[in-house]
Amino acid sequence: QVQLVESGGGLVQAGVSLRLSCAASGLTFSSHAWAGWFRQAPGKEREFVATISRSGSGTYYADFVKGRFTISRDNAKNTVYLQMDSLKFEDTAVYYCAATPPSSPTTAITTTRAYTYWGQGTQVTVSS
Cα(111)–Cα(117) distance, rounded to whole angstroms? Predict the structure, then answer.
């Protein structure tokens, strides 16, 4: 049974940093083409945040997090991370970890449709 478990969320003030972790069981991140982070704020659709390739050599970010967030992976620990710096009020959302199938998806990797496996999410609340 595949499980992706996010952790590291919380309530923080604007300007500080948080690091989210996504630990996988029943799935080996290094065997899947991409691992990504999405987020969903109340009343809004789930949106792409960042994604990282199997080897870690390829990364993509949403424009609104470029320069502030960094995605990384530790294949030995089977874990993907999202380092979030200079947090803003508008970063408040539930953050989800996701993985594509082993083969590269035919749909854009910045869309939810490219990802088959999802975690339950971790809440990040940024107070202004």
Answer: 13
